Amino acid sequence: MTLAPRTRMTIQEYLAFDLAHEGKHEYVNGEVWSMAGGALAHNLVTMNVGIALGLRLRGTPCRVYSSDQRVLIDETGLYCYPDLTIVCGAPETVPTSPPTLTNPKVLIEVLSGSTAAFDKDVKFAHYRRRTSVAAVLFVSPPDRRVERYARAADGWVLTEARDEGVLLLPELGVELPLVEVFAGLDEALLADAGAPTT
């Protein structure tokens, strides 16, 4: 996933623009960012995570939504398209076109060289303001690492897993084996992705 030049708009202008134009556009601090397509490694790993969690959450109240689902962080006015969004219970939306989710429980970003700093610094600052968000995951394909930031009484707590480890996700009641997250990822795909700045 890469970022294209940004443009300042009002929220109403942004919503109309996002509806009228192909692709995905995020509204961050009054600026609209165009989100270009992801590299092969990014797309593979995003799908792997979605499948792994979707299978484990089957039969529970939790659902996994793809990067086509727009999310609103009410507290800051951020409109975004996380790589994956998990909602537990009935989805809550605002009446935009298309509808925008407002009650994400877990947000997941797969890092790439061009967006890692934006995802981990700018967007994470917004994500942790949303009261419904219990955890944010950052997945780094080149490092074969997944970082989990979980809400705690005194802030956010980091746990991580690497290589063939297993990441515990108590907020969802499941485990995420990294062997499934990075299945099929080889050096050729990584060369296409670029290394994220972490």
Describe this structure in words.
This protein has a single domain (about 1-190), classed as Alpha-Beta Complex (tt1808, chain A). The chain has helices at about 10-20, 40-55, 115-125, 180, 185-195; strands spanning about 1-5, 5-10, 25-30, 30-35, 60-65, 70-75, 80, 85-90, 95, 100, 105-110, 135-140, 145-150, 155-160, 165-170, 175. It is globular. Helices cover about 25% and strands about 35% of the residues. It is α+β, with helices and mostly antiparallel strands and about 200 residues long. A hairpin with a 4-residue loop joins strand 6 (about 70-75) and strand 7. The chain has a six-stranded mixed beta sheet with strand order 5-8-11-12-13-14, with helices on both faces. Strands 1, 2, 3 and 4 form a four-stranded antiparallel beta sheet that branches. The longest helix has 18 residues, at about 40-55. It is built from five helices and 16 strands.
